[in-house]
Amino acid sequence: MRIAVTYENGEVFQHFGHTEQFKVYEVENGAVVSSEVDGADGSGHGALAGLLAGKGIDVLICGGIGGGAQAALAEQGIELCAGASGSADAAVEAYLKGELKNTGANCDHYGEGHTCGDGENHACGGDSGCGQSCGGCGKSAVTGKNAGKKCRTHYRGTFNDGTEFDSSYKRGAPLEFVCGAGMMIRGFDAAVADMDVGEIRQVHLMPAEAYGEADPAAIFTLPLAELPGAEELEPGEQVYLQSADGRAFPVKVKAKDALTVTFDANHEMAGKELNFTIELVEVCDN
Question: What fold characterizes domain 2-96?
């Protein structure tokens, strides 16, 4: 089985039609045996569906997706699992365990043209894709002997209280990415850039090196009357809104009353200090 995930910065990219890359997983006997990141060379939903079919993809995991794209995938015989968010590796693991549920077409759940404040930078590491705090999203150049090279790493991520939030060791397959290409959060990239193969390094990342500080401007309130179907939402639930440029992005319901609903578009890791144990498994020159 081959599973493709819309991919950016280690996470599930939130709009199928705008994804620039897929992470493709080879699965045997219910377990991931290898993975690689491929560019999305197609243009438009039909072309992307054809691209995936040409790569022998059996399942697509993504965030937001429209009805037209859903139909194009169905025509190619590709199973769809939409509505995923967070770590791409974790999403695949959840799918293989039968824990990931398909929400179907969801891009226009709340109508076209909705924007959250400025309609652009809600939570970096999501739509902005740089893993930095909003208000200064320029990517910092990563330098080191591994910059620009494909690296395979095992890692374990924990919060300061020791709680583990992710681990490639548990999935049994190292993470593969191009160091310094913006596929990973800045602090992770910077740590790997000068590591030796076989080296294990402990790093502590402040929010600026990870998913940025939480942005108060990314918390916004809308009238229920403007959001068909929002009457059923509950605080803590995650849904998708659509920006002016057509990108779907995840938001969490923060509060709701009889007339309004308040959303939080910050990345779930925003404002958090993160700790990683990183093991560099392999470095390829191309």
Answer: Nucleotidyltransferase; domain 5 (3.30.420)
